Every structure is written in C-alpha cells, then in structure tokens.
Amino acid sequence: MEKTLNTLMARLRLKQLQLLIALDDHKSLHKAAGVMAMTQSAASKVLHELEDMVGVALFERSKTGMIPNQYGHSLIRHARLMVTGVGALCQDIADIRSGKGGRLAIGSIMGAVPDVIAPILNWLHSRQPALTIEVVEDTSKRLLALLEDGKIDLMIGRIAGMDDQGKFRYQPLCDEPVSVVVGHGHPPLRKKELTLRDLKDHRWVVYPSRMPLHTLLEREFDRAGLSMPANHIATASSLVTITLLERSMDAAALLPTEVATFFEKHRIVRILPIQLHSKQQTFGIVTRSGGTLSPPAEQFIQLLRDRNMVH
C-alpha cells in the first residue's frame, strides 16, 4: 500500500485526473480528447499510463460508450475532489493577491480585543465577506509560539521579558490601563476611598506567575505592605476569570480597563475606585522578523495606522 501511494504521489498528474473527469462526462475517448485539446492517441496513452499506475482497468466499453467500473468510479470521485481543490487553491491565490479574499489569523491579548481588534475586523468583514478571519485570544507567551510556528499571521500583545525577541518585529500601539474589579453582585464597599488593603481578605483571581499582570499585582501588594493572597486562583483564561467574579461575592481581580468597562456595561463586574501606582503595560503589533505578510495582514496593520494607533 505504501509503495502504491508513493508511486501515485510521484507520477500522478493533473492532466490525468482531468481526462478521467472528461471521460466520465462524455463517455467517449474521442470527445474527451477534444475537450482536453489532445489527440485521441495521446488521450489513450494518458489513460493507459494511469491504469498501469493503479494496476487495474478503469473503464469498460459498451454500446453507450466508455463506462467506468467500480475502480473507475472511485478514482473519478477522488479526481473531482482533487481538481476542485486545486481550482479553489488557484482562486484563493488570486483573491489574496487582489485583497478580496484569503485567510487572516490574528492573535490577541484580552485587553486589545474590545477597542483594537473588534472594530477593525468588523470593518474588514463588511467590505471583504470572502475573507476568512480567525482570532485567537491568549497570553502573549502562547501567542508568540503560535506566531513563530506560522499558525497566526500577526499578534497584538507584548514581547517584553520574552525569550528570543530577535525573532519578532514589534510596533508599539498603546498603553493598557488596568482596573481592580469584583463581580456585579459583590456587596457594596461603602468607603469613599478604597485601597488594596480593603481587599486583602478577598479571594483573588490572578494570572499565572511571571505574567505581566501577575507581576503588576505583586508590586501593588508589596507597595501596600501586603503579601500576595495565599488562597488565590491562577488562570490565564479571561472566561474563567469573568465567570469566577460573576459567581462569587468575595472574589477580586485585575482586568484591562477596556475589558472591565465592557463587562461592567453588561452588569457582570464592577470597577472599584482603587488607584494603581505601577506603570501601565504597553502592547503592540508583533510579526515575524523577515517574514512576508499576506495582503490581509498588511491591510489590517494599515488600518491600525489609519486610526493613528501605531507609533
């Protein structure tokens, strides 16, 4: 079986598949050759080469013409799929070159989704409905691995503190303000001025260690003369964080302010008036160094420039 597969992969040609389809459509070698712009003898030779490759006859001659046998039916079915796939590939390439189609895969940290990613993707999709768009929301570390492997075209995130920064090109976008939040059902905190000390007994939902927001929270607790809560829950998932806040009466977390504002509008969290002193995090566009961007990826970055977001 492996030898047959290797032989087919090495010798199979698109012209042979097209001839099979023409024979199935017209039931005549003469007519199929005409459709293929070949002589009948040349078409006969191509058919015999294909039958030699698979080791069986593919057609039977009858009064109504050349009729595929069970082997022929199977091969014709797959030939149609392969020819259709090649045609779709050619169309995709043409669409990508013209900027009308193709695929755009973007990675993004949570804080960039509401005001950076969503508006531009909505604009792109409304004007290029044939463009397939994929958005992966994750931590910068995980997104960088996807970017390096070519699984995403670009990412909106950070490279500060990451290994192998030379593999990537970074264009800063903007700072990421951070807010302290609790669930919307959290009992009201009556004090006019709140500090982290007022939340020292809360159950904190934090990012895993060594991640920027985890480090920021450690600095804020240290500045307030507090130790990090021993009973915290660590997760990099925004869904887990939001769900735990929404379902708890004593949980707190740091969230990017844009994300926190979005969920506050939907009455899922409440932003607390706690002033953070640590420097705001900056994020930007990250692409592979020396890599060639697809037209959709270039257009996405240009739209960011048009919105005066790229420094």
TrEMBL record:
Q: Which residues form the HTH lysR-type domain?
A: 12-69
Gene Ontology CC: cytosol
Query: Do you know which PROSITE patterns this protein is assigned to?
Result: HTH_LYSR (PS50931)
Q: Which InterPro entries match?
A: HTH-type_LysR_regulators, LysR_HTH_N, LysR_subst-bd, WH-like_DNA-bd_sf, WH_DNA-bd_sf
Alphabetical keyword list: DNA-binding, Transcription, Transcription regulation
What are the recorded GO MF terms, alphabetically? DNA binding; DNA-binding transcription factor activity
Record family assignment: Belongs to the LysR transcriptional regulatory family.
PANTHER family, per the entry: HTH-TYPE TRANSCRIPTIONAL REGULATOR YBHD, NITROGEN ASSIMILATION TRANSCRIPTIONAL ACTIVATOR-RELATED
**By what name is this protein known?**
LysR family transcriptional regulator
